[in-house]
Amino acid sequence: MFSTRMNSWILGLTLALGFAAAQAQAVKTPDVLIREVSTDVLEAVKADKAIQAGDVQKIIALVDTKVMPYVNFQRMTASAVGRYWRQATPEQQKRLQDEFKTLLVRTYSGALAQVKDQEVQLKPMRGTPDDTEVVVKTEVRGKGDPIQLDYRLEKAATGWKIYDVNVLGVWLVENYRNSFAQEIGANGIDGLIGKLAERNKAASSGGAKS
Fold first, then answer.
1. How far is Cα 200 from Cα 192, in angstroms, rounded to an integer?
2. Rounded to whole angstroms, how far apart are CA atoms 82 and 128?
3. How many CB atoms are closer than 10 A to CB 183?
4. In this predicted model, what pLDDT tens digit does every residue of 81-136 receive, in sequence order?
5. Helices in the chain by DSSP H: which ranges?
6. What are the structural domains of the chain?
7. What's the Rg (C-alpha) of the chain?
8. Own/partner pairs for 21-30, CB < 8 Å, 24+ apart?
9. CA-to-CA distance for 120 and 141, rounded, in angstroms?
10. Which of 148, 132, 151 is nearest to 36 (CA)?
11. 50-67: string of b/e by CB count within 10 Å (b at 16+)?
12. In angstroms, rounded to a whole number, what is the distance separating the alpha carbons of residues 139 and 134?
């Protein structure tokens, strides 16, 4: 009986360790993740004439499918809102995330529409296996000058997640934090939500396809 129990315990432990090893192997390193996501997005844009023409709904669908699973968007939005995030109700936080996401997608839809023959090149990454936050630096190369595009990532239970992006030397979260703070200081959290919604509505009615 003892031997049978011991064998069962060893078998269970072996299976558990094997499963854990398989999970660890399946978790991509941050640079590999960025390379794969970037390549997938560029290839999808190159293959879709509607996206190249600026179809916002298709761009949103592309971002939802290819990018958002690898983004901690709550942290991104909370960082942009700053100290006011904790003052927001759960409903306000959700509305902030929704409007901020729409703003970012519309802001960069024009850039995606310009994608032709670009490719992403990763720069050497500094870090150790024990790091829980890293920066992955890339360049988007094609015709014209290369575009600097860097990512801040955090190590989550399900793998690496993006929480900030640097375009041409400007970190996205920091870029919005000051303007968001000014709007909240003047008109409150609902004022910021309204301002974002107004900008998104204006962009939508300004000729963008949907």
1. 12
2. 29
3. 18
4. 999 999 999 999 999 999 998 888 777 666 666 677 788 899 998 888 889 999 99
5. 2-26, 30-46, 49-52, 56-66, 73-81, 90-113, 172-204
6. 29-204 (3.10.450.710)
7. 21
8. 27/159, 27/160, 28/159, 28/160, 29/160, 30/125, 30/127, 30/134, 30/136, 30/151, 30/153, 30/160
9. 6
10. 151
11. ebbebbbebbbebbeebb
12. 17
Q: Where are the alpha helices (DSSP H) in 124-210?
A: 172-204
Where is 156: in which H helix or E strand? strand 147-156
As a residue count, the chain comes to 210
Residue 178 in tokens:
């000051």
Quick check: 152 and 133 in contact, CB under 8 A? yes
For 133-179, the pLDDT digits (tens) are: 999 999 888 877 888 889 999 999 989 999 999 887 889 899 899 99
Which tokens belong to 92?
Answer: 């306000």
pTM: 0.77
